[in-house]
Amino acid sequence: MSSGAEALWRERHHPSYAIHMPAPDDFAFWRERARALVQCDIPPDRVSWIEPGGTKSLFADSEFADVPVPDSSSAIVRASKAFLSLARQAALHSDPDRFALLYRLLWRLQDDTRLMEDKADFDVRRLDALGKAVRRDSHKMHAFVRFRLVEAGGQEGDEAGHREHYVAWFEPEHHILRANAGFFVRRFANMRWSILTPRGSLHWNGEVLCEGPAAQKSDAPDGDPTEDLWRRYYASIFNPARLKIGAMLKEMPKKYWKNMPETALIPELVAGAQKRESEMVATGALEFDPQPETLEAIEKAVSQCRKCPIGDLENHAVMGEGPRNADLMIVGEQPGDQEDLAGRPFVGPAGQLLDAALKVAGIDRAGVYVTNAVKHFKFVQRGKRRLHQSPTAKEIDTCRWWLEGERALVRPKLVLALGASAARSLLGKTVSINKVRGRAIALEDGSELWVTVHPSYLLRLDGDARAAQERDFAADLASVRARMEMV
Ligand code: URA
User: Fold this and answer.
1) Is residue 288 assigned to a domain?
2) pLDDT tens, residue by residue, 183-204
3) Is the pTM of this model over 0.90?
4) Whole-angstrom Cα distance, residue 206 to residue 178?
């Protein structure tokens, strides 16, 4: 065969495939295409993953074959939970080769199911590094996005405005904008805001989230009265006891400083730090850290948390417990008296009722991550007794930071909220349990929320009312159990 004919023969028998990604962060699309390619036995060196606006392939589209469709008898594609969870993060990296790396790893996992444990493997190390960079970028975004007022709120009923409009400018290194939208919607649920970035923009009007095009720094406001607010806020939370310039620079790289009004205060704060230290030790300063990266770090931070007054009561923080890769997370309201003493969630009367109901539903509590919307016990002292008090919406919203940290690390497929406080924490707004129970609610991270009543509510009922509510509670748990089989 001549070399030209040989090339033609090879091309016919070993065609190449171009996959055009619809968006640079579309992990679901990559996953679906990658699965089909593995099932059709297409090795990684014959696949080009092309991003929108990314570098064009050396070849014209006509030189690529159509992507094959696997038939129904195709083998199951193996992908461990550890791989998928890291791959989902790494897919947001700005490295143009990330989708090829992911596919190469998926391909290799079919023969080597323990590949992800090989920390010396080049591809595994690269995946870890991409995931870490993306997580770090997200932490920065959570910590350093600063909203500035661009439009004052109008009178109620005023068509033009009713709400003040805040705008923030941020420069993410990776494609993290959409993946972090839920964080900002929940945290600033009642504000009207826009986040502008060079990679796209997000706009929230208090009800609906929209995506917009990429923006430029000049589109964002550059100074306004709220900056003073930030400055005062930062001055109040600035903790001189922790003042280490090196560490500060690490946490707040200079490239973020330029967008932060409060950084103008840093020299002044450094100078005044010594003087203020004793005052702050006495009052207990607020921390303003990026989200911790491990459950242990969250536990430690929660035990020192004084972002709301509940932490100042005589109590202990109660961290969630359970497998750190649990498929199901159950979220209660807050620890009670017994949980506070034991340092574990749901061990008192409500916990016993919950355990019994889980057993009937066929859900093994040992496989579930159990936690609370609020991590400290809120109570009033009556003689020797500590009487439970419900947390306020503000306290729930403040403590949501920790629950979000737990969710980001455990990444449950299903979340079950027990009662209104847990539902508020997960949905960012108060809902009526009866309106939302018994059906799946999609959460922004791809997991599914189910809502039911709190077991303490059942304990307060008796007679027929209790029997009826227990039946509904059991039915809700049975639905969750059934869903666990499917997701
Ligand atoms: N109630 C809750 O909501 N959580 C607990 O941990 C115990 C009781």
Assistant:
1) no
2) 888 878 778 889 999 999 999 8
3) no
4) 17
